[in-house]
């Protein structure tokens, strides 16, 4: 019974991921077909509905689905973390980006099940102030989560991290050490009555145009 329940779930999730990827590529192709001479900057990136204004960068973050399919992180029109790229895993999937240059300085999966809390905390503390931080949950992010870790995310602009509990879906984009409330954050609560993936809630995602530079 468990196997028959998991297989349809996996199939649905894979279809969702393929559809999202196709929608990104098709939107770009359609735009180029309408105006082949238009500069690439005129094409919405990361499957957004509009082109980002100057000094902003397109992003879209999608959480993992249950413990089957990992999250997807798109930044400036490029998928930088995904199940297909094999660079995501259970826990917190984080990309750290220099907003001024647009360079992805580092990306990592912080395993919140088997990882060492000291190593996880050290990784978070090394993120330089002002860096853009993109985060997507997969499976469960709370087993190794400490109050100090939650405080670091709060200082990045998260207002939901303190309420994230076991198996909640959570995505977030903020700026390290600035305490500026982020507009890019979403959470789906693990609730047996409302879960759509058995013991897990629905996927969540955020997308939009993030300010490129930071000034005090």
UniProtKB/TrEMBL annotation:
State one Pfam family annotation.
ILEI
- Is Secreted a UniProt keyword of this protein? yes
Annotated ILEI/PANDER domain residues: 91-177
A single GO molecular function term of this UniProt record: carbohydrate binding
One GO CC term on file: extracellular region
Q: Name where it's found.
A: Secreted
Does the UniProt entry include the keyword Signal? yes
Keyword field: Disulfide bond, Lectin, Secreted, Signal
| Family named by the database record | Belongs to the FAM3 family.
Designated name of the protein:
ILEI/PANDER domain-containing protein
Phylogenetic lineage: Eukaryota, Metazoa, Chordata, Craniata, Vertebrata
Gene name as annotated = FAM3C
């Amino acid at each position: 019974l468990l196997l028959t329940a998991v297989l349809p779930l996996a199939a649905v999730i894979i279809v969702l991921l393929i559809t999202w990827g196709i929608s990104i590529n098709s939107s770009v192709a359609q735009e180029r077909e309408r105006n082949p001479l238009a500069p690439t900057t005129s094409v919405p990136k990361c499957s957004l509905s509009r082109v980002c204004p100057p000094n902003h960068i397109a992003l879209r973050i999608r959480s993992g689905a249950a413990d089957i399919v990992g999250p997807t992180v798109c930044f400036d029109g490029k998928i930088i973390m995904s199940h297909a790229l094999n660079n995501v895993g259970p826990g917190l999937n984080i990309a750290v980006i220099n907003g001024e240059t647009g360079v992805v300085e580092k990306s990592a999966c912080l395993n919140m099940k088997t990882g060492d809390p000291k190593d996880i905390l050290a990784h978070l503390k090394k993120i330089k102030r002002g860096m853009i931080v993109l985060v997507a949950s997969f499976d469960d992010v709370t087993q190794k989560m400490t109050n100090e870790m939650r405080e670091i995310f709060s200082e990045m602009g998260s207002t939901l991290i303190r309420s994230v509990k076991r198996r909640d879906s959570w995505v977030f984009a903020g700026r390290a050490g600035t305490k500026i409330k982020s507009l890019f954050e979403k959470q789906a609560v693990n609730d047996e009555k409302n879960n759509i993936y058995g013991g897990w809630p629905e996927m969540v995602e955020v997308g939009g145009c993030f300010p490129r530079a930071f000034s005090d």
